Amino acid sequence: MRHLLSCTLLLLAGPVLVAEPLLAETIFVSNEKDNQIAVVDGDSLQIKTKIKVGRRPRGITLSADGTQLYVCVGDDNRIDVVDIASGKIVHTLPSGPDPELFVLSPDGTKLYVANENDNMVTVIDVAERKAIGNIQVGVEPEGMGISPDGRILVNTSETTNMAHFIDTEKHAVVGNVLVDSRPRVARFTDDGKQVWVSSEIGGTVSVIDAAAHKVIRKIRFEVTGVRREAIQAVGIQMTKDGKRAFVALGPANRIAEIDTASLEVKRYFLVGQRVWNLAFSPDEKRLYTTNGISNDLSVIDLERNKVIKSIPVGGAPWGIVVKP
Amino acid sequence: MVRFWQWPERRSRLSKPRRPVAVILPLLGLLALAPPAAAQGSGSQVPGATAVLIGYLARQEDPRTPLSFLEPVATDEGLQGARLALADNNTTGVFLKQSYRLVEQVLPQDGDIAAGVKALADEGVRFVVADLPADALLAAADRPEAKSMVLFNARATDDALRNEQCRVNILHTAPSRRMLADALAQYLAWKKWPRWSLLAGRDPGDALYAEAVRRAAKRFGGRIVDEKSWTFDTGNRRTDTGVTTIQSDIPLATQGPDYDVLVVADEAGDFGDYLDGRTWYPRPVAGTQGLTATAWSRVNEQWGGTQLQSRFEKLAGRWMTPRDYAAWLAVRSVGEAAARTGATGFDGLAGYLHSPDFELAGFKGEALSFRAWDGQMRQPILIAGPRMLVSVSPQEGFLHPVTPLDTLGDDAPESKCRLNR
């Protein structure tokens, strides 16, 4: 509604502005079970189209110029590169076996991929479309985070239960931090000083001092009426000002908001079932979450702190990325 | 010969079993990082790296021959699970400067358990995966050398081992019969299939399984409307007379009062797989065959299980069975304790294994831990069909003040184990 209103105002303001796209962000959701990417219009919150990709798409991210999507298609052992304008796969990248999650270097030239079956991280040169290195890590590598300067990569290994700090120049592990069981996602704070790692079975988020390689705080969650075992931390996002952090709690069907100064949980949002991952709208007024069991996308209004909508997106939504 | 086998899973589509050569090579690569075995006595510190020895104790036995041709005849059940966990431990160990070595002690069929325990003790082994039936397990646990060991029961489902016959030096990674029966009973209650007809085989293990089913019926509102023993002869799975006899035997064996589910107790897999599709009434089969309550099954790929299944298949050239899974849990438990505590000595590791802080991720969606009152690993139990995962227990709605996992098997107030009180 608000968007409709601003659209009318823009029309009144004059024809030059009308040529600009509206506030139309686009949300891309990887549907693990459907082998499709659901494309959702951020204005109407309706599905615009679905893009067919390889089997079991999970990790999804935008290219540096925002024109392409990289999608990990684990069962096909590759990364599909989708041209957003045409909605077509234009080529694939050799990811190594069973890619689940990855991260793009800040300069957009390299993809670091976790190969879940091979205890390995593969480095891909995006322009050359080839693997240029491997780094041996713990059992079942999963989460991937990169420092804002691109120098340090953090990979989590689900059965080894560690965050591995990797020097991206040397392709070498420079530190290992033990975290709680089944670490899933690693995310650097924008100042590069901390790495947040979620543990699915442990049900915690470890806040790690990125320089010292030490856990400085373990954030625990408690939701009335939800048994402890159902609280399984997965996706993490933080606002650009570094003040608010959000953690998806899996089968607890909640997003926890954490005050990054005190590292205390401020509130919980009830979203769809088995929430995996989350992404902000470009203006950070909204948070979108993928809910793997209820097959929908929850929309949280971060100004009013309310869940305002759920959108059915397809079979087992998992990864999510928003294009401005 | 009493057999205390875990019941088999029915399987389909399996590649030809391969020898596990491919695995041994990477293992050797990892082991090369470890100091020589001679220097690895438990507790002895080696500069730069410390090694933890884990024993695997079993007796050779006739291979289990499943009735279904889709299932291979496995000769290395249990052992391969231990080997996989060892590789997993060593991959993690590289980052912590810890290493692990598996000391495999597989005795001849009538081999002396005491000698096996002594041989392990002589090598400095103090954590032992016991892939043994109940009587042999107790014989091992009661040896003087075993007093300063932790034995993991990765095989015997006997409830007595968790009650009257419990031992302070045993931790159970295999579920008990009561856990399995309770898991099934909860699912049948959720389905509102309360009338059960119980058909038990002639092995002592079948009688014990049937006992656990009767107890579960009482706990979760099932009603056993009829009980029968399987008295027909069964023999080799390959016979030229084919299905003729079976087709006429089974309606006779299952005739009687009407029921919702036929619950079968056939741990060795002598006849249970013949039942489905041949019963007097058109009703489902559950228990040790059909809808099976089990610690592990190939049909499960939830909670990252895909990775465990594919790692195992790469190693063993066959599917992971519940026995492999229990052995995997045992070896991983030691690895987890070492990673969490940084300890490699016995006291540090054993203390942590018994502490409430111990948690293991076992591809079942929540942390697994040991019950303080009987050393049983609490774990969700799969309700597996022959080709698909049907459900996982505990079921929603069966509540418990501490953890729903303790609705399966003997909870603290019911336990007759008196060691820790």
Largest sheet of chain B: 7 strands, mixed
Using DSSP, what is the number of strands of chain A? 28
Greatest chain-chain interface? Answer: A-B, 27 and 22 residues
Query: Which runs of chain A of at least 5 residues are low in confidence (pLDDT < 50)?
Result: 4-21
Q: Can you give the helix content of chain B as a percent range?
A: 25-40%
H/E series of chain B = HEHEHEHEEHEHEHEHEEHHHEEEEE
The chain-level mean pLDDT of chain B equals 88
Give me the strand/helix succession of chain A. Answer: HHEEEEEEEEEEEEEEEEEEEEEEEEEEEE
What gross morphology of chain A would you assign?
A: globular
Written overview of the protein:
The complex is a heterodimer of chains A (324) and B (421). Helix content of chain A is 5%, strand content 53%. Chain A is mainly beta and 324 residues long. In chain A, the strands form seven sheets. In chain A, strands 3-2-1-28 form a four-stranded antiparallel β-sheet, with no helix packed on it. In chain A, strands 4-5-6-7 form a four-stranded antiparallel β-sheet, with no helix packed on it. In chain A, strand 24 and strand 25 (286-291) form a beta hairpin. Chain B contains eleven helices and 15 strands. Chain B has helices spanning 21-31, 79-96, 113-122, 134-141, 177-191, 204-220, 244-254, 272-275, 305-316, 322-341, 346-353, and strands at residues 50-59, 98-107, 127-131, 150-153, 170-172, 195-200, 223-229, 261-265, 285-287, 291-294, 360-361, 367-370, 377-378, 381-384, 389-393. In chain B, the strands form three sheets. A seven-stranded mixed β-sheet of chain B has the order 7-6-8-9-10-14-15, with helices on one face. Chain B has a five-stranded parallel β-sheet with strand order 2-1-3-4-5, sandwiched between helices. Mean pLDDT of chain B is 88; it is low at 1-48. Classes of the chains: A mainly beta (324), B alpha/beta (421). Chains A and B meet through strand 15 of A and helix 2, helix 9, helix 10 and strand 11 of B.
